[in-house]
Amino acid sequence: MRPEDVLCPTPAGLFSKAGDFHIDPTRPVPRALITHGHSDHARAGHGSVLATRETLRIMAVRYGEGFAGSTEAAALGETMRIGDAAVVFQPAGHVLGSAQIVVEAGGLRIVASGDYKRRADPTCLPFVPVPCDIFITEATFALPVFRHPEPKAEIGKLIASLAQFPERAHLVGAYSLGKAQRVIRMLRDAGYERPIYLHGSMEKLCRLYEEEGVALGPLASATVATGKKGDFAGAVVVCPPSEIAERWARRFPDPVACFASGWMRIRQRAKQAGVELPLVLSDHADWDELTATITELGPQEVWVTHGREEALVRWCDLKGIPARPLHMVGYEDEAE
Ligand SMILES: [Zn+2]
């Protein structure tokens, strides 16, 4: 069987001819397999969706219960037959419920890893390396300049700033699925016990994480109309990144604008976003994780999806591993 019959890039996303399904389709399709709940991968309107139970729950929170014609939960590590393909979901270490999708047909195994990281994350299962013939990798941070620092040290910066500025509110911009909960959980692990305040758009997903066993400690709403400005002195408020420099932020006392993102590695980007305290915390693999993962898996070929494809393809070339960019569109860098 040719690799193109197992999986091949199409304008709607990766398509499996052998199994007659799409992975993370960007437009409505009859049968979608979905790696994780971020909005550029998980969209509403498909005929049927196969995803982990957690991803299905996340989609229901974001789009409502009727987000697909039908749904089916994929159990991690369990082989399912779909048409002429054997399919297995394995953890990707990206966000709660995130999975790589392993597709095998005609003796050829392809791993579509979706988004992934290799660093420890207390809010999701770690990435499981699956040896394969073809590894499909993201390339969000595929430049040697991207070397994410130790996550604990970044949270340590936030803890230090809280001690230094006890009268100021700390507004932490964080993507509402994954990053927000990871920041909160890491603050708890660092010994921070006070209530953490949430922007309204974070509340449902935080509750879902708690229901799935990720304890987040005392949480409170940051949208209480009756609250006085002074109530938030020294408080941590988690909100979407777009809010840290907006009108909404002015209700808090002398706010310290923080942003938890892999992009904070780029000083200019932090400056443009009006960020006073950049926290370099990413849910994507950095350059070293990407190259180490390819070395570990030893695939015969690498396909590179969204991000900075060229540098990673070049690195593979230098290592003698055939690689090609898939030029997939519709997958943003998200507010990572
Ligand atoms: Zn993602």
What fraction of the residues are assigned to beta strands by DSSP?
A: 25-35%
What Rg, in angstroms, do the CA atoms define?
20 Å
- The secondary-structure element order is HEEEEEHEEEEEEHEHEHEEEHEHEHE
- For the record, give the distance between the C-alpha atoms at the N and C termini, rounded to a whole number: 37 Å
Q: Outline, from the CA principal axes?
A: globular
In the predicted model, the low-confidence regions spanning at least 5 consecutive residues are none
The unique ligands bound to this protein are: zinc ion
Give the strand order of the largest sheet, numbering strands 1, 2, ... along the chain. Answer: 7-8-9-10-11-18-19
Q: What is the mean predicted local confidence, pLDDT? A: 95
Q: How many runs of DSSP E, i.e. beta strands?
A: 19
- Structural class per helix/strand content? alpha/beta
Count of DSSP H/I helices: 8
- The helix content is 10-25%
Q: Largest sheet, described in full?
A: 7 strands, mixed
For this entry, give a set of tags.
336 residues, single chain, 23% helix, binds zinc ion, 8 helices, alpha/beta, seven-stranded mixed beta sheet, globular, six-stranded mixed beta sheet
What does it look like?
By secondary structure, this protein is of the alpha/beta class. The chain has eight helices and 19 strands. The chain has helices spanning 3-6, 53-63, 151-164, 179-189, 203-211, 267-272, 287-297, 309-318; strands at 8-10, 13-16, 21-23, 31-33, 46-51, 68-73, 80-82, 85-91, 99-105, 108-112, 134-139, 170-173, 196-198, 219-221, 236-239, 256-260, 277-279, 301-307, 323-325. The strands form three sheets. A seven-stranded mixed sheet has the order 7-8-9-10-11-18-19, covered by helices on one side. The longest helix has 14 residues, at 151-164. 47% of the residues are buried. The model has no long low-confidence stretch (mean pLDDT 95). Bound molecules: zinc ion (ZN). Zinc ion binds next to loops.
